[in-house]
Amino acid sequence: MGIEGKVALITGGSRGIGAAIARRLAADGADIALTYNASAERAAEVVSRIRETGRRALAVHAPAADPGAVPAAVDRTVAEFGRLDILVNNAGIFPYGTIDELTMEQFDETMNLHVRAAFAAARAASPHLGDGGRIISIGSNLAERATRPGLSLYSMSKAALIGLTKGLARDLGPRGVTVNVVQPGSTDTEMNPADSAPADAQRAATALGRYAAATEIAAAVAYLAGEGGNFVTGSTLTVDGGANA
Question: Where do the coiled-coil regions begin and end (predicted)?
Fold first, then answer.
């Protein structure tokens, strides 16, 4: 896959899609650093499982409210492993509510986590990324199509990642660094479990009639992180079972 011996940093890597990405990139031969916000125990579990495979792994506490936390995690990763090759901006939340219900505090929290932190992480990682380096952000298919009321803030924040991706692709392309965004649809995680009340409607909206597994999103990230992504940059890869078709 072209990942063997590389170092990857995954933000929000203690659970859900982030944990699946961490495990997949480790299985493909990368050493892994991951950040977490609240669950040190969950982060330690992911790290332990990766170390059992023979790869190096590190968990870094990076609270979402701390603007310097993600750049500090980049520095810690480089100090620990001596390099950084792959950055995956995955940490996220799901604010839900109409424009009359959402607060400015929710706006600030969402934009800080989804946009500011991704920009700060890319800025901190950039000096360490050489030819073949990767920045991959986890967006959402809802960035392109808001399917119901209550998604304005979430969709806006994820749409911003598309613009960031395209701009960074131009900035970093001359150095051989690719930048892309993966846009999952409904994925079976704690944030959006496949057995929840809204799940049937979400399944019905897809062409395949089911949720994604987190490992399927991780496989798309692994493709972009490896040799398959050598000539893919500034692009969005939508993995939503045809929900946006």
Answer: none
